[in-house]
Amino acid sequence: MTPHNEAKKGDIAKTVLMPGDPLRAKYIAENFLENPRLVNQVRNIFAYTGKYKGKEITVMASGMGIPSMGIYAYELYQVYDVERIIRIGSCGGYDPALDLFDTILVDKSYTENNFAYTFNAEKCSISQASETLNQKIKETANRLQMKYVEGNVLCSDCFDLYIPKLQELLDRLPKDLHIKAAEMESFVLFYLAHLYHKEAACLLTVVDIPTKKNQISSEEREKNLNNMIRLALESCC
Known about the structure:
The protein is α/β, with parallel strands linked by helices. The chain is about 30% helix and about 30% strand. It has eight helices and eleven strands. It has helices at about 20-30, 65-80, 115-120, 130-145, 165-170, 185-195, 220-225, 225-235, and strands at about 15-20, 35-40, 45-50, 55-60, 85-95, 105-110, 125-130, 150-155, 180-185, 200-210, 215. The protein has a five-stranded mixed β-barrel, surrounded by four helices. A hairpin with a 6-residue loop joins β2 and β3 (about 45-50). The longest helix is centred in the middle third of the chain and has 14 residues, at about 130-145.
């Protein structure tokens, strides 16, 4: 056990799906897993372990932001011997071609955050998903005939709808990355996975488009992301 996770070794599966929202973790466990059991509720960061088509899977919330994901991903990789984590989250779309509820498979994550320097004395602003895990997700999407967009994202410390000078942020993003969307956790997940020779991927659903002033409700954010959830689960089988 850790200060943040009461699960015992063996309670956490080798494959973990990580939504940000604890209630989304609960929703996934109750609606997609067979015989789910609650294995952590410290700080209400719910973790459930059950089976999907015979494969043992844990669904655990990460909370919001790089520091929270950093704590839980580190512990899962280093304490609970987790082999792979697929983040399943929401994002704000920056690419004008995106629509609400589009699914994005993240390739690279760019950040202005200093996590890598603080944690590992490394100046690093770009981290990348595991190629083998992303390839499995793409093959699964093609098999299921699910549409997705592959691309790079900004991993931000700020919720984009609240940024007063959003255009200034957009203007200073590296143009060669062609950043499609913004979220708040993928950089540190990819960074730690690479550091500890693990696997990590990130699937996102577009829930707001700041430049179009479009967004969905909190209830829709919690429950109406089933295409992304199913793609992640099927990619684990």
